[in-house]
Amino acid sequence: MLLLALLAASLEPGPVHNGRARELAVSPPRLEETVTIDGHLNEDPWSRAAVLTGFSRYAPTDGVAADDSTHVLVWYSPTAIHFGIRAFAAPGAVNATLADRDRIYNDDYIGIFLGTFNDGRQATVFAVNPLGVQGDGIVVERGASSGGGFSGIVTGREPTDIAPDYVFQSRGRVTEFGYEVEIRIPFKSLRYQAVPTQTWGINVIRKAQSRGYEYSWAPAERAAASYIGQFGTLEGLTGLERGLVLDVNPVFTARALGVRNAATGAMDRQSVEDVGGNVRLGITNDWTLNGTINPDFAEVESDAGQIVNDPRRALFFAERRPFFLDAIEQFTVPNQLIYTRRIADPLTAAKVTGRRSGTSVAWLAALDDRALSFTGGERPFYNLLRVQRDVGRSSRVGMVYTDRIDGDFSNRVLGVDGRLIWRTSNSAQFQLAGSRTGSPGAEVTGTAFQLDLRHTGRVFNARWRLNALHDDFHAQSGYINRPAIANALLSHSYTLYGGEGAMVESANLNLVLDGTWKYQRFVHGDDMLEKKLQFNQNFVLRGGWQAGASVLVETFGYDPDLYTDLYVERASAGGSVTYEPFVGRPWIPNLDYVLTLTSPSFRRFSAHAMYVWGRDENFYEWTSADIYWISASLTFRPSEQLRLVTSWNEQSYARRSDGTTVARTRIPRLRAEYQITRSIFVRAVAEYRADFADDLRESDRSGDPLYRQTASGLVRARGFTTADRRANHLNFLRPELLFSYLPTPGTVIYAGYGATMVEPEPFGLGRGDSQLRRQSDALFVKLGYLFRM
């Protein structure tokens, strides 16, 4: 270690800014020179660069000097800002793989946070692993890190949204002293203030997987309500030449689609060719105009299958389309009142986004496909507006307006919201919104309200939240997880810390009280529909291991809205049959247990597992059930280029009356990826989904069968609807193959194949009497090229 320290001292080229000494104001030199981005910091400009050093531990605990030295060299030319990384580590301690973009976070990596508006609220993130493989994204602070669930209250920096991609150059190499990386970020890829002399916020983090630690140049405190507000600054940036910012990205896609004809059994095939593209114009340094015609499909890999724990909650799928991802952070709204995936298949769309003098404005308009219309004859028109205004160093207020017009149908939402921070560790977030939804001959209005108070401390943390959605509040341009409810949450946690070298680095005890009402019951002061008491214990162990245990004590009330179409078949002694509306018992008591374990990211593998078991509600028959839920994943990296990710999700409900299975879902998934070069990889994905749902009955009372009312009459009820009602199994195999060439965001060649196959018996895979039958498939090619003017 002494040798590494001497080597580090000998490599320091310019003025040093020690983070632990709070030397956080950096004036990097402006040099009229260029360098070759090759991962070697041996050219003259690096000898004159400013140096950031003196890192501190940030996660899982903060305040201690970093175990390994890190030097970050920074200078800028007229057209780009340059960073050079020298990260020192013991021999053999560096984790590095040749990975696809944004898949570097099981490796060691460096993350550069640039707050180009110096507003203490948002930052663009540029990350690289030791081989220079890139990851990037955006962070907008909105209080999302202080979550809940089995992990309890989480303090620290908010997660980076890695969906946006930015054009920058990087190369890296593993060295005898650790690793060295060279980065060039063009000013064309950044938005920044319209002033001649710039001051930007900056921080640099380093993840050392072998130790399980994250280090930070700015000595940030995890307990602070704002992470970005603790950044250092890059000062005196002048003469930045962004030039003409015009990105033209034409895209061609061709698909050959096949669907099995139910009548003939043959595969009906058709070919589809699409030409479209995106345009991005930098009007000024801080205002951008985007346009798209027939935007390309974004998913070259299907969304992973999800298990539905509560049929009243909508599933969420993240945005992936390039047009919508650019400046997506400016459309962030509490309660997700803007959710761009609602615009499913637009013919055309345009947006303007910008920021000036502490005010940001984002406007988007889109014309969607007729297939998404309520009538089938109109093109739904979306109009989304988001405005935010800075208040003080880290607080803000904002408004949102959305409308969706579909012929005689319309939905409009108007809301105000804000986030206030005081005394560094206290924050409040509020929102008040109203909606007006019109249809031929009818119009309804509703309101939404949210208040979220938080205290983030090193030892004690608290969160108090009230959220209420009126029955007639609709956000057709947004994502409402569960409508027409009110929810109150009280969460308190206490954290103890082990000393240096202790096996347990931190232990957190979290107590949660969570109550949910139907909205009308809430406003009339009636009892809750759901009552939850949760005890969560979470431990961070030396070396990066994490473990947790929870006890969930809950009571669920009968929700008649779920069972309006369900009837009980009653047979009389005389042989006659009648059908009575199903009415469930008033309350179901639950008692569940949870165990979680997460490994560090070792050089060759990492893993996570969760096991839930106990007594829970059987939504299918509205009675108590013995349940278990297993979720496990393993990432295996046998070489620098090959990556295998496998997961298993399984959930089962068994009747407490006789132990028979009501429903069971099993989803194994395997993803294999071989990275041929930094720009080329091949990938194979296989996901199997096996669903079983028994014939439903009034299992906790008479045992009489349940029937569901449909358009064609009463049919025997099962937990899900299938095309073949004689079957209780529904089993899918979804294989996918992909070749990808992606030298830079926007320039791509994709060629892939995907299929959906079904079989009557689970996991038969065509063996024996189980016939694996292809239901649909698709062969596609996508070509795109980014012209950057």
How are the SSEs ordered, and which strands pair?
Blueprint: H1 2-10, E1 16-18, E2 25-26, H2 44-47, E3 50-53, E4 56-59, E5 70-76, E6 80-88, E7 109-115, E8 122-128, E9 134-140, E10 169-175, E11 178-186, E12 197-208, E13 213-216, E14 232-238, E15 246-260, E16 267-282, E17 287-293, H3 322-325, E18 348-356, E19 359-367, E20 381-391, E21 395-406, E22 409-422, E23 426-439, E24 442-455, E25 460-469, E26 485-497, E27 504-518, H4 519-523, E28 530-541, E29 546-557, E30 566-571, E31 577-581, E32 587-598, E33 605-618, E34 623-636, E35 642-655, E36 661-675, E37 680-693, E38 706-710, E39 713-716, E40 729-744, E41 747-759, E42 773-784, E43 787-788
Parallel strand pairs: 1-3, 2-14
Antiparallel strand pairs: 3-5, 4-13, 5-6, 6-11, 7-8, 7-12, 8-9, 10-11, 12-13, 12-14, 15-16, 15-42, 15-43, 16-17, 17-18, 18-19, 19-20, 20-21, 21-22, 22-23, 23-24, 24-25, 25-26, 26-27, 27-28, 28-29, 29-32, 30-31, 30-38, 32-33, 33-34, 34-35, 35-36, 36-37, 37-40, 38-39, 40-41, 41-42
What does this entry look like structurally?
The strands form 4 sheets. This protein has a 24-stranded antiparallel barrel. A hairpin with a 2-residue loop joins strand 38 and strand 39 (713-716). The protein is 3% helix and 53% strand. With 789 residues, it is an all-beta fold. The relative contact order is 0.09. The two termini are 48 Å apart.
